[in-house]
Amino acid sequence: MTSTGIHDIGGLEEEFGPIDLREHGYQLWEMQVHATLVLLSQQGLLTTDELRRSVEALPGHTSMTYYHRWAAGMTAICIERGTFSAADLNLAHGEPEKMIGQQSLVVGQVVRVRREDSRVRWRKPHLRTPGYLFGAVGVVERFLGCFHNPEEKAFSSNQEPGTQPLYLVAFKNKDLWKGMEMHGEDGITAEIYQPWLDIVDEQNDANEDTKVVRDIQVVSSKVDHGDHVHDTRYETEAEALRRETVHDDPIGKTTGEVLLKVLLEKKVLDINKIQEVVEKMDSTGKMLLGQQLVVRAWTDPEFKQRLLDDGNAAAEELGMVASNANAPTKFLVMENTLSTHHLIVCTLCSCYPSSILGMAPSWYKSRSYRARAIREPRKVLLEFGLILPKEMSLVVHDSTADCRYMVLPKRPKGTEGWGEKELMGIVTRDCLLGVAVPRQK
What we know:
With 441 residues, the protein is an alpha/beta fold. The chain is 35% helix and 14% strand.
């Protein structure tokens, strides 16, 4: 099966897995990143296609959360276009801290190598800690002395860098490579600087997974995303799923906040405008304008036909803008009938009618949903608790370009005498994406 890149996952079996149906609320920094895209697009400083191209080139694509990718991609485009410079970005982070370390570890001490996302600075440094050791547990074999900070030396040539204690740390192969036949005593040693090592509290550390699996590949990319990522496009599925289900993302948060900081300092954006967009996105999700469209279509056959013929124009009749704020999009409404059910997905990224439905749910953006929806849609619907009759056809709409889709669900029997408020109460967001149907409460 052909794939055009790390983002193109429709039907890829290696991305199959259970879909996490839990709702994850959006943090402020994520909504500010979304608002930044909207305002940069409206000012002509970035296009949606540029963002897609930049995000698709991220070497750490699968290990980053959704809005982390957006923030890193926008940072790259801003530097590429000259909206701000790499020097501006570096200044916003501040210079790397000087470290004149004192030896704090002793021979025989059990230590854990910090994971990559434990670092304070997110810009891409010259790391001397190999990725396959992130999170691994080892034993200090020797203190090697204090050496100039290699990460500081890689970025600052005008000042004398600080020093850090360096240790020789031993690891057992069986603890590093899960699922592989390893002799019990085989191992490796690596030179690790003190800031990358944490002392292991064996009593409180028993539940920590000491096996870190990495599929190391060489990746070449000319786009400098100014981001602290070292994993490749062949990041293991386990790592990808771990990152997608853990909502807390300190690196992504810093990425988004620093991007906004630079744009505000350069007077490219105004914080009041950011807040206006954030508030609008937040209220759109609560109002769920799609409900109003559905109820109007259920009660007005002529409006229903106009909605199916031209979703943008019909939405405008009710004072709604169906096109997404960051790019002109065509709003297509697909009607469920007795013989046909519709399901919406975007396999390439997660295109979504946010102007009508608000912020996209986490499961819609997940790699599992995007990969499986086009290949085994009935199994996907089953996970949402929806079983379609065998005789009913199922059409999946892949929002791959400039259209945004919404399902017009079939009105349930027995609701003929219901008022607008009652009808809106049975129209959920999931109904409008095709993973559910309206049910009488």
